[in-house]
Fold this protein.
Amino acid sequence: MSDQHKGAQIMFSTMQDAPLSIARILQQGSGPHGASAEVVTWTGEGARRSSYAEVGRRAARLAHALRDLGVTGDQRVGTFMWNNAEHLAAYFAVPSMGAVLHTLNIRLFPDQLCYVANHAEDQVVLVDSTLLPLFQKLLPELRTVRHVIVVGGDKAALEAPTGVEVHGHEELLDGRPEEFDWPELDERSAAAMCYTSGTTASPKGVVYSHRSVYLHSMQVCMTDGMAMSQADRSLAVVPMFHAMSWGLPYAAFMVGASLIMPDRFLQPEPLVKMIAEERPTMAAAVPTIWQGVLQYLDADPHDMSSLREVVVGGAACPPSLMKAFEEKYDISVLHAWGMTETSPLGSVARPPVGITGEQRWTYRASQGRLPAGVQGRLVGDDARVLPWDGKSVGELEVRGPWIAGAYYGDDDPEKFRDGWLRTGDVGFITPDGFVRLTDRAKDVIKSGGEWISSVDLENKVMAHPAVAEAMVIGVPDEKWSERPMVAVVLREGQQADAAELREFLSGEVARWQLPEYWTFIPEAPKTSVGKFDKKRLRRQHADGELDITHLT
Ligand code: ADP
């Protein structure tokens, strides 16, 4: 509060103080949009469908069942599931009854999974039957879990330790009332939680509130956000266990957009088939998924004409990928930036009006413009706040109503400064508010005192027609302390050697940035959510596992 206002009387508004809640989103989706919107779950052969009204009824039945299992107040209910209709019902039932949904990232290492389920003190876990073999290994180590609900398949396939009861999902829901008297909750209370994938340290818990989910959903639907509306059919490739599937499920219920859920069929072939048959208008996934889809389509063309826009985020999207989608399939690729800590939608790259030609691509390849709900600042090495001048490079810090202000039960002051979240992402901001990230702080390459952007080099190498994927890390160098090393995955049936690729880069980057270390790998190491795993590549390099060409 400014000095001028200290001690002054506050005049309150005459507006109602209705809490922003997930139950409200559920009512809107399952009521007015209940008959017109549907969730489609892919089964491998085809699709199964439920109207949003049906999802609402199943959410009510699940809430009754969970109450009977003793779930009250703020207890955590975990999900160990793919994207499907049952997971969607849990997304609404658990927070709306006042409990807390904890989406477990099935791709974390088993010890990390046990860590997060124990840390969050999950009481109940819903598990897809196709994931039982994986879950079985964890169960004996889960200290607080009392009930496991097996979705689909046979519950007898799970061997439970003493003190844990196993239930079949359908039997448990059978005969339960199809309505639930959703309690009126404090909008600031916990609704859902998600742990970061822990690429650097042990996973950290981010706890979303009803209010943050509600406001974030509105941002997803804004025209300059993802522009989701009742006219959309949204293919949610991004897993519901990764940053809440980027908020798509809640946003879709808010406006009555249908959802297409791929379940476990995340490979290019079924995704392409889903698009051709279910005709989504929008879709969202990390760049590596779209790289795979593009390669598949090149070999086996399908009708992609239903897609008006594809949202790409979670890692820097190579401009070559955006251009290929547009030129070959007339699909617009929208680049977005976010983190588990930012709900996750932080910025979206829609160029300002009136911008054309190459300049338009510069905007579109950026991480995008920070919206009103996400305030940003750049901070330099000496904690100095830097200007938005399109040149000064620093760490991006953000704050706002859907940005985490702390981690759950885990003080990590390093990540927060004076109420701002330190993103660990480095770049600059233009005067008109567009963020351009050059690296993650820990991936920055410092060569002879100058910074080289690994992301920039990757994008430029990936523009070569023979290259499917390229990862760049800094490797120790006697003279320059660090130099970039490029790890290349070639497209199937394509050839290119280090000298040719370096030549290809020579007109694109400054001479001193041209990498001299190259390696060709059959597959890029990826994290649990499909991003380049640079930590693993660095380890492979340190352990001498890579066959390196040194160009002089
Ligand atoms: P993790 O940190 O474990 O990968 P998140 O999914 O929360 O888990 O990742 C957030 C990070 O992903 C961001 O801090 C940023 O480094 C990266 N990221 C997300 N979107 C983009 C993007 N469009 N461009 C570049 N980096 C991105």
About this structure: The radius of gyration is 24 Å. The longest helix spans residues 52-68. The chain has 15 helices and 28 strands.
